[in-house]
């Protein structure tokens, strides 16, 4: 029974995917005498936590009830008062928690508070599912840097463009639609200026999507992004351009007038680990790195890769000069190669999607 209600709580949590950042996905279900009397999910940062919604719905029926919650109830004052206090105040009898809060400053404290108040607490029901649900958030909280997904569409021989730089389109429309769905799961999309110059992409979530758009981030040491590029002019989503230290205020001005935010690094190059710390400070919890080959190469060299999404088309491009999915220097020895595990394989239209994780 515990698993059944927890599964429902997980589904509720999942339903808000893409809109809670930088907060985790959390769901809660209140059960009394074998009946569901309340449920809720955390929908947006700054808005009530899942427990608050669920307890509100339950009203007086919360007294003596069991509350299923996918993440340890909070015990500290954030933007809202602690949920642990609310559970105690509502006199619930039992709390079932899927997984503990990964923040070492908070971990276990909510559970401890409930237990001290005499509430029966069970921890670990569907823990694996709950950990997978908030993988990005957990990574962000423990490293203070965004969760990195590398994405590419490649031919069966591993090319992401022809030798002349053409890449439209390697994969089918169905696969490209799937990319839009995946983009939405991340806070920001990252590309190199090479991709902007070659393809002038708009990097927005389309195909009927209306909600929040991920931030577009361009890695562009010398500010070569054209002022007429789509990411500068279309105002469809926020655009940040990351530049080297030598770029002047004067150079930055026209971009800022167009609504673009410029992030100037302290060096004359863009070092990936430094960039990730900088983005973490700006509450970017996850990034979707869409190329090109050079940028992928830098992320690989610094081993800053949590997940790879590869869309593979049954097309052969060939050619020594056609770029492969990951360029740059690469590793010289097999022992240094980044080893991942395949988590998911799917046929989409005429293509194959592979999800691999570190
Ligand atoms: P990239 O988009 O990788 O951009 C590379 C440029 O980004 C560099 O030359 C550099 O220019 C700048 N840059 C800034 N910081 C970094 C960093 N830390 N690491 C690496 N580069 C950095 O360009 P590519 O030329 O490699 O790839 C473009 C090609 O790839 C195009 O032909 C495009 O069509 C294709 N493509 C294909 C995709 C697919 O999935 N099939 C996806 C994306 C692109 P600077 O020194 O001036 O800052
Ligand atoms: Zn809370």
From TrEMBL:
Gene3D superfamilies in the cross-refs: Cytidine Deaminase, domain 2, Dihydrofolate Reductase, subunit A
> Record keywords: Hydrolase included?
yes
Provide the active-site residues from the annotation: 51 (proton donor)
InterPro entries reported in the protein's UniProt record: APOBEC/CMP_deaminase_Zn-bd, CMP_dCMP_dom, Cytidine_deaminase-like, DHFR-like_dom_sf, Eubact_RibD, RibD_C, RibDG_C, Riboflavin_Biosynth_HTPR
User: Which sites bind substrate?
Assistant: 167, 183, 203, 206, 290
Where NADP(+) binds, per the record, is at 153, 169, 195, 199, 221, 292-298
| Pathway the protein acts in | Cofactor biosynthesis; riboflavin biosynthesis; 5-amino-6-(D-ribitylamino)uracil from GTP: step 3/4; Cofactor biosynthesis; riboflavin biosynthesis; 5-amino-6-(D-ribitylamino)uracil from GTP: step 2/4
Task: Report the GO molecular function annotations.
Answer: 5-amino-6-(5-phosphoribosylamino)uracil reductase activity; diaminohydroxyphosphoribosylaminopyrimidine deaminase activity; NADP binding; zinc ion binding
A biological process term (GO) from this entry: riboflavin biosynthetic process
Q: Sorted alphabetically, which Pfam families does this protein's record hold?
A: dCMP_cyt_deam_1, RibD_C
* Superkingdom per UniProt: Bacteria
The residues listed in the UniProt record as binding Zn(2+), with positions renumbered to this chain, are 49, 74, 83
Q: Provide the cofactor note recorded for this chain's UniProt entry.
A: Binds 1 zinc ion.
Q: Which reaction does it catalyse?
A: 5-amino-6-(5-phospho-D-ribitylamino)uracil + NADP(+) = 5-amino-6-(5-phospho-D-ribosylamino)uracil + NADPH + H(+); 2,5-diamino-6-hydroxy-4-(5-phosphoribosylamino)-pyrimidine + H2O + H(+) = 5-amino-6-(5-phospho-D-ribosylamino)uracil + NH4(+)
Question: What residues does the CMP/dCMP-type deaminase domain cover?
Answer: 1-122
Assigned protein family: In the C-terminal section; belongs to the HTP reductase family. In the N-terminal section; belongs to the cytidine and deoxycytidylate deaminase family.
Its biological purpose: Converts 2,5-diamino-6-(ribosylamino)-4(3h)-pyrimidinone 5'-phosphate into 5-amino-6-(ribosylamino)-2,4(1h,3h)-pyrimidinedione 5'-phosphate.
Protein's name according to its UniProt entry: Riboflavin biosynthesis protein RibD
């Amino acid at each position: 029974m515990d698993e059944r209600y927890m599964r429902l709580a997980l589904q509720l949590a999942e339903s808000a995917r893409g809109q809670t950042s930088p907060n985790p996905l959390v769901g809660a279900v209140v059960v009394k005498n074998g009946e569901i009397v309340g449920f809720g999910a955390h929908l947006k940062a700054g808005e009530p936590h899942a427990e608050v919604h669920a307890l509100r719905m339950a009203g007086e029926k919360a007294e003596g009830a069991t509350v299923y919650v996918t993440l340890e109830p909070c015990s500290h004052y954030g933007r809202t008062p602690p949920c642990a206090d609310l559970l105690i105040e509502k006199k619930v009898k039992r709390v079932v928690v899927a997984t503990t809060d990964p923040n070492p400053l908070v971990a276990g404290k909510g559970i401890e508070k409930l237990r001290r108040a005499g509430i029966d607490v069970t921890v670990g029901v569907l823990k694996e599912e709950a950990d997978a649900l908030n993988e990005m958030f957990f990574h962000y909280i423990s490293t203070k840097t965004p969760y990195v997904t590398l994405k590419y569409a490649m031919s069966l021989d591993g090319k992401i463009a022809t030798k002349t730089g053409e890449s439209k389109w390697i994969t089918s429309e169905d696969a490209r639609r799937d990319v839009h769905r995946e983009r939405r799961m991340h806070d920001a999309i990252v590309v190199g200026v090479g991709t902007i110059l070659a393809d002038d992409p708009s990097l927005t979530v389309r195909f009927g999507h209306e909600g929040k758009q991920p931030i577009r981030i361009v890695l562009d040491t010398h500010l070569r992004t054209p002022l007429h590029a789509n990411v500068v002019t279309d105002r469809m989503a926020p655009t940040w351009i990351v530049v080297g230290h030598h770029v002047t205020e004067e150079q930055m001005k026209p971009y800022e007038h167009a609504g673009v935010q410029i992030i100037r690094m302290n060096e004359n190059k863009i070092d990936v680990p430094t960039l990730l710390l900088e983005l973490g400070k700006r509450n970017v919890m996850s990034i979707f790195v869409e190329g090109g080959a050079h940028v992928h190469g830098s992320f690989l060299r610094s081993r800053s890769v949590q997940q790879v999404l590869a869309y593979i088309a049954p097309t052969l491009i060939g050619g020594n000069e056609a770029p492969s999915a990951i360029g740059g220097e690469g590793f010289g020895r097999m022992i240094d190669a980044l080893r991942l595990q395949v988590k998911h394989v799917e046929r989409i239209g005429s293509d194959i999607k592979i999800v691999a994780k570190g």
